[in-house]
Amino acid sequence: NAGVTQTPKFRVLKTGQSMTLLCAQDMNHEYMYWYRQDPGMGLRLIHYSVGEGTTAKGEVPDGYNVSRLKKQNFLLGLESAAPSQTSVYFCASSRRLAGGSFYEQYFGPGTRLTVT
Amino acid sequence: EDQVTQSPEALRLQEGESSSLNCSYTVSGLRGLFWYRQDPGKGPEFLFTLYSAGEEKEKERLKATLTKKESFLHITAPKPEDSATYLCAVQPMYSGGGADGLTFGKGTHLIIQP
Fold first, then answer.
1. In whole angstroms, what is the distance from residue A83 CA to residue A49 CA?
2. Would residue A25 count as lying in a domain?
3. For residues A23 and A111, what is the distance between their CA atoms, to the nearest angstrom?
4. Which residue, of A42, B10, B46, B105, has the fewest CB within 10 Å?
């Protein structure tokens, strides 16, 4: 199993450009998440998905859009990049235990994005 | 608002010098508390899940414990390869039936010197 993979690993954008980050998981997990990690801030949730075709906003959703067309993929889009979106982006996935408990989340290796 | 505070921010130990990392949390109800390890340039790696006060989990030189207000990650006789940032996160009880993401602390940067 590759686990959670992310592409690209690094990217530099100019202000106003757009891009899509791809996350793929081969663990058949129902839930997928996008986080950003900034120095001194910890990981913060951007968007998440509880299943194919469904998405929801997290703590810091502004400026981002997501799609989950296939169970194994979760895409994060930046329509018009801003310097404030310079960050390291992590995708994660998890399965849900029957009865409402939650399993741990497994993280990808991250995408380092710089917006100039 | 859910809050997770980790202390200390950074800790430098000699190889073999045991210590503990603290994670204090404030949530309306705790569904689970998670510990992760993060190496530079990598994604967080899952270590433990704790669900209820009094619970303990162990893995090699690490032991995680949980009370109603905080969790500790005890490191016994650490080795240089234990150097990493250790992250604590909580899953609140009120997750609306969905899969709201975790609330993370800022982490403790641990350095083990040979």
1. 26
2. yes
3. 10
4. B10
Q: Is residue A23 part of a domain?
A: yes
Q: Are residues B43 and A30, on separate chains, in Cβ contact within 8 Å?
A: no
Q: For residue B61, give its domain range.
A: 3-94+103-113
CA distance from start to end of chain A: 36
Whether residue A116 lies inside any domain: the answer is no
Interface probe for A, chosen from B46, B87, B94, B108 (most Cβ of A below 10 Å), is B46
- Written as six digits, the tokens of A51 are 């299943």
CATH number at residue B17: 2.60.40.10
Q: What pLDDT digit, counting tens, does each position of B71-109 carry? A: 999 999 999 999 999 999 998 876 554 456 788 999 999
For residue A21, count other CB atoms closer than 10 A to its CB. Answer: 21
**Tens-digit pLDDT profile for residues A10-57:** 999 999 999 999 999 999 999 999 999 998 888 999 999 989 999 999
Residue A85 belongs to domain with CATH number: 2.60.40.10
Mutate to test the interface with B, among A104, A106, A111, A112 (most CBs of B within 10 A): A104
Q: How confident is the model at residue A98 (pLDDT cuts 50, 70, 90)?
A: low
Backbone torsions φ then ψ of A85, nearest 5 degrees: -95, 5
Residues of chain B with C-beta less than 8 angstroms from the C-beta of A105: 34, 46, 101-102
The pair phi, psi for residue B44, each rounded to 5°, is -60, 140
Within a 10 A sphere around the Cβ of A19, how many other Cβ atoms? Answer: 16
